[in-house]
Amino acid sequence: MAGHAGILVIAPHPDDIEFGAAGAIARLIQEGRQAVYALCTSGDKGTSDRSNTPEQLAVIREHEQQSAARVIGVREVVFLRYPDQGLEDSPAFRKDIVRLIRRFRPETVMTCDPYHRYVYHRDHRIAGQAVLDAVFPFARDYHAYPDLIQEGLEPHKVKELLFWGSESVNYRCDITDTFMLKLEALRCHESQVKEFGIPDLDAWLRSRCSDMAAGEPFELAEAFHRTLLPP
Q1: Which domain holds residue 151?
Q2: Residue 12 belongs to domain with CATH number
Q3: pLDDT band at 3 (very low <50, low <70, confident <90, very high)
Q4: Closest by alpha carbon to 213, among 204, 201, 221, 205?
Q5: Average pLDDT in the chain
Q6: Nearest to 111 by CA among 7, 228, 220
């Protein structure tokens, strides 16, 4: 399914969106915008349970991501199925992201911040950088991918980028009214939530979102680095 989507959310693994941005996405959907999720990998390495093979885990995690997306009201979920822990900043990966941007033509693209320092999942760094480069300039420029033009995928200018997991926060979204949807969506990722050993997920997540709202006139927030693109 193609066509305009107000928001395109590109994440390295299932559950990344729910931790980083699901409350803000739910709010934007309630305000009338459509959202599409794109998962770069299916998270096939993300477990300490040796009884599951990577192939089995990928099926489980894709199912969990679909369930979480339904909770939020997401229009569509796309799985690119690159190997977990195997993302590379390659021309092929960048082109796949450009194809998504030109296919769905979003005003807003959301992803993880590639510039988080030191201990950080490499897939997050690579995905964030590839998305940033795909948005500007590759998705914008007519001559970047002549073959995509032949596919009917015309250039597209994204208006804004929102990066979650940033150490340079300049935008906080009020999710007080959508926090419970965020929590419900996160709970859909049963295979992952049990790995964290958090006895009270509600209290832990509420505390985290309360900290992100510090200094704001609302109770709960998700924090981003927001970048506006040239018109």
Answers
A1: 7-228
A2: 3.40.50.10320
A3: low
A4: 221
A5: 96
A6: 7
Residue 226 host element (H or E): strand 221-228
Q: Mean pLDDT over residues 66-74, rounded?
A: 98
Give Cα separations from 117 to 16, 160, 179, 205 (angstroms): 17, 23, 28, 23
Residue 2, domain member (yes or no): no
Residue 163 neighbours by CB distance under 10 Å? 27
Q: Is residue 1 part of a domain?
A: no
Encoded tokens for 158: 């994204």
List the structure tokens of 139: 């998705």
For tokens 């799985």, what's the residue?
A: 79
pLDDT in tens, 152-172: 999 999 999 999 999 999 999
Number of structural domains, the chain?
Answer: 1
Bond prior to 137 in cis (omega within 30° of 0): yes
Whole-prediction pTM: 0.96
Tell me what pLDDT residue 1 has: 44
